[in-house]
Amino acid sequence: MYKSQIGLGISNIMEKQDTITNIEPVISIKGLYKSFGDLNILKDINLDVFKGENMVVLGRSGAGKSVLIKILIGLLPPDKGIVKVLGKQVDKLSGKNLDALRLRVGFSFQSSALYDSMNVRQNLEFPLTMNVKNLSRQEINKTVEEVLDAVGLKEKINEMPSDLSGGQRKRIGIARTLILKPEIMLYDEPTSGLDPTTCEEINTLIKDVQKKYNTTSIIITHDLTCAKETGDRVAMLLDGKFVKVGKFEEVFESDDEQIKSFFNYNFIQ
In the Cβ-directed half-sphere of 228, how many Cα atoms lie within 13 Å? Predict the structure, then answer.
């Protein structure tokens, strides 16, 4: 029913550092600028994200992380620079071409964005039946049950969103994103507002999704624990720029006072 997703995982990429420049990035950002009036949000952003990789964009609230995600899916135009997703320059797409790209990119909202008037089954069925035509009831049921099983909430299929905990709503939101089998997952503050135990569950789920669905992900967060546990690499966003990109330990070995103060403020036990 869906195209199989085959490609190099991040482990393969890291084992072949000498040839990484020959691998086509799934997401490529070059010289990106974005301002709102006199407020400069993004200033010369450059980043490549490769197939199967979890890339964390880490920074304080208001640093421009969510603006970056909106540019990636064409909700905001860049002022300057080139943003390519799955080989397509996003700001050059419109209409059906932009819609087609968005179907390949799953967006997990900070608020989970579930429809309060629909139960869990209906919330999951909605994007599936809207975008995949001529599915039988059996195929719909099977797909819904598969994604619910993937997030560990199969027993909640007939519950209303109001009856779910915050963590459960996050999980259902991720399941609804997964139902169209996206190649890229964008997570916007996935652990925001959750208790530490539930945060750990969501972090584990993000890693499980990466392995099971072979997704490429960008995880927007200001949560250091989320960054450390989910990211293959971390891009530290400060003052509108990526000041350092690398593995978590590499980023925070920096002598940059801004990076050190960010770490100390968000101290990890």
Answer: 13
- pLDDT surpasses 70 at 256: yes
Distance of CA 174 to the CA centre of its chain: 10
CA 32 to centroid of chain Cα atoms: 19
pLDDT tens-digit profile of 79-138? Answer: 999 999 999 999 999 899 999 999 999 988 777 789 999 999 999 999 999 999 889 999
Does 62 fall in a domain? yes
Which residues, 6+ apart, have CB-to-CB distance to 32 below 8 Å? 42, 44, 45, 46, 68, 71, 78, 80, 81, 82, 83
What's the domain range around 145?
A: 114-181
Domain count across the chain: 2
Q: Are 235 and 58 in contact (CB under 8 A)?
A: yes
85 within 8 A of 72, measured Cβ to Cβ: yes
Closest CA relative to residue 235, chosen from 259, 207, 267: 259
Instruction: Give dist(CA 182, CA 186) in Å, integer.
Output: 10
**Cα separation of 253 and 269, whole Å?**
17
